[in-house]
Write a structure and sequence with these properties.
The protein is of the alpha+beta class. The chain is built from 15 helices and 23 strands. It has a 6-stranded antiparallel sheet with strand order 3-2-1-6-5-4. It has a 5-stranded antiparallel sheet with strand order 8-7-11-10-9, sandwiched between helices. Strands 12-23-20-17-18 form a 5-stranded antiparallel sheet, sandwiched between helices. The chain starts with a helix and ends with a strand.
Length: about 625
């Protein structure tokens, strides 16, 4: 009986309702509690609203000045710089053409060269949408792609003074902007001295229509009171989203103090963006400017503070409306919670917390597994990079060269392989089946087989290497033993070069590009891949011999480069465009050419994901 009584004493308090206390409060003075709680909430919301308004306003101003304005300025300045730099590069290529320079110095006497000169000039103009011009210092002839022989320079003609000033400037490149108020057109002229800047053969260059930039400027307008200008060092507006402002003076639209500060700071701060805030009769203004990297012009963006901060007034009104609505709902919710649903709500909160805890645990486990997997893949990348020839080894054997290796994932199935021989070297560029880790494992297997083949007493020819690689890879993958669950292999190109200037090539579904004397020749490989079930190189596999002269270049590429989609129509880059890019950039050094080919692919790809692994190798002999 004593034990029973004690047990009853212990259990009795547990039978009471957990919300009995709140029920008692509701019965005695629920409205008093609700009124007190609402008063506290009103004060808290008011304090929070006022402080939030001040914090948000300061944060928005900081964001506007440090992020939004900088982003807008960087976006448009990058487009202008890229367009001007591209025009400069084109102008330099035109101006340093040795054939045109020689023809000008001979006084344009060789009439057989004139059609070729006109064809080259019109081809560049049509391809790049430029106006191309050449002016002969000796004859004064002014050639353009539209009217061909357009004019003859005259020192007494004020319209021709640009030509003589450019010759006397001693500067390789001179930039000029011409704004036509009648036609509302703005053109950038790249005037480039041909050949030696001290004794130039003439002036050549391109004209770029910048009117579309004015159209693009309007896309960056945040409001009707914002302005975007491109001005020269003298404060003349070259481009504006408002066509009527083009050709005007910056002082006409900004206070003298601000316009002078822009010119002074732009001359000192270089190409870094600078933000200025100032007050005028219409209110507070925010302005950012930056000097372009491609020239001395200044890009300026100005916006009215009231336009960017106007939404804060809406926030304030919304806050007061929210307070009223919240109070009404709080009175209802407090009453209902106090009388009916406190306990179920508590249970639901507890259940939610338990679920949240379980989700966090699962997420932590997944994150840990993902970290381990990523670390393993990066370690695999280190291993794969270790089997590729080092830059020092490539430089020692090949000297002038470039290599573009860009796996689609962290590791990939494309590789390049190089081995020095007694009288030269052997190079292999391959594209194995698959991407990521499977492709990387294939490259290591192929690398091992190549090392085994090259360990023979006599160095085999490229065709023999491909045949032997095909045989050993099939053996390694059980292709001849009836296990056809997989059909993996690779495309490859093999080069063998001796110090006497003889190059041997054999390819399996991979071509070789040879640039010699300004012409690019393509040597196609065998139609079959290596290591596949149906791969066969019994009778029709042979070496292609090429006599290499000093200055010749050879290029090998996997299909990842030419198959990359992009451009305005989302088409593949293509072998034809790859060949043209090689041909048009032979004036560059082999290293600069490699950087150019990489940049062209990146620009063409745009926002599209990389489709395949990429390897491009270029060698200058």
């Amino acid at each position: 009986m004593i034990g029973v009584n004690l047990l009853r004493k212990v259990k009795m308090p547990m039978k009471k309702s957990p919300f009995g206390k709140y029920e008692k409060i509701v019965n005695k003075g629920t409205m008093n509690v609700i009124f007190f709680a609402c008063s506290i909430i009103i004060i808290a919301i008011l304090i929070t609203g006022i402080s939030s308004y001040a914090i948000v306003k300061k944060a928005m101003i900081d964001k506007l000045q440090k992020q939004d304005l900088v982003y807008i300025l960087k976006s448009i300045s990058t487009q202008i710089d890229e367009r001007i730099d591209r025009a400069k590069e084109t102008s330099l290529i035109l101006a340093d053409n040795p054939e045109v320079i020689q023809w000008f110095e001979d006084g344009e006497t060789d009439k057989k060269f004139e059609p070729l000169f006109i064809e080259q000039m019109t081809h560049v103009a049509k391809t790049l949408n430029y106006t191309v011009f050449f002016t002969n210092r000796k004859t004064g002839h002014y050639w353009t792609n539209s009217n061909l022989l357009t004019d003859t320079m005259n020192k007494d003609d004020t319209a021709d003074q640009w030509f003589y000033k450019t010759l006397a400037s001693g500067q390789k490149i001179t930039l000029n902007i011409d704004h036509n108020n009648v036609l509302n057109q703005t053109n950038l002229w790249i005037d480039t001295l041909m050949g030696d800047i001290h004794e130039p053969a003439g002036v050549a260059g391109v004209g770029v229509d910048l009117q579309d930039i004015s159209t693009e400027f309007s896309n960056y307008k945040i409001s009707d009171k914002s302005n975007l200008w491109l001005v020269d060092t003298n404060g003349k507006i070259s481009i504006s989203e408002d066509i009527e402002q083009s050709g005007g003076r910056l002082q006409d639209y900004l206070p003298d103090k601000v316009s002078n500060e822009i010119k002074n700071d732009a001359a000192q701060s270089g190409d870094k963006p600078t933000v200025i805030s100032y007050q005028d009769q219409s209110g507070q203004k925010d302005l950012i400017f930056q000097k372009l990297t491609s020239c001395n012009w200044i890009l300026i963006f100005q916006i009215d503070r009231s336009e960017t901060m106007g939404f804060l007034n809406s926030i304030m009104i919304s806050t007061f409306v929210s307070i009223t609505v919240v109070l009404i709902f709080l009175i209802i919710v407090f009453y209902v919670v106090s009388t009916r649903i406190a306990n179920p709500y508590k249970k639901s909160v507890q259940l939610n917390l338990e679920l949240e805890k379980e989700v966090q645990e699962r997420t932590s486990e997944i994150r840990a597994q993902n970290k381990k997997m990523t670390e393993s893949i990066y370690y695999a990348k280190t291993i794969q990079e270790s089997i590729l020839p080092s830059s020092e080894y490539l430089q020692k054997i090949l000297a002038n060269h470039f290599v573009l290796w860009r796996p689609r994932d962290i590791v990939g199935g494309d590789f390049y392989w190089l081995r020095e021989t007694d009288d030269g070297w052997v190079m292999v560029v391959g594209d194995c089946t698959g991407h990521g880790v499977p492709g990387a494992l294939m490259t290591m297997a192929v690398n091992s087989i190549l090392s085994n083949i090259m360990s023979q007493n006599e160095i085999p020819s490229p065709a023999v290497i491909i045949k032997e690689l095909n045989r050993q890879l099939k053996d390694a993958l059980n292709k001849e033993k009836g296990d056809h669950s997989t059909d993996d292999g690779l495309d490859a190109a093999v080069l063998s070069y001796d110090n006497r200037g003889r190059l041997l090539y054999a390819g399996a579904k991979m071509s070789m590009y040879v640039a010699s004397s300004g012409q690019v020749t393509v040597y196609d490989g065998h139609k079959s891949g290596i290591g596949y079930i149906k791969s066969s190189f019994d009778e029709d596999m042979f070496d292609a011999g090429v006599r290499i002269n000093r200055g010749d270049r050879v290029y090998l590429t996997t299909d990842g480069y030419v198959d990359q989609n992009g451009g305005s129509h989302d088409y593949s880059f293509g072998k034809s465009k790859f060949r043209k890019n090689i041909s048009h950039t032979l004036k560059l050094s082999i290293y600069e050419q490699g950087k150019w080919l990489e940049k062209v692919l990146t620009d063409y790809q745009g926002q599209e994901p990389q489709r395949d692994d990429i390897v491009v190798v270029g060698i200058e002999f």
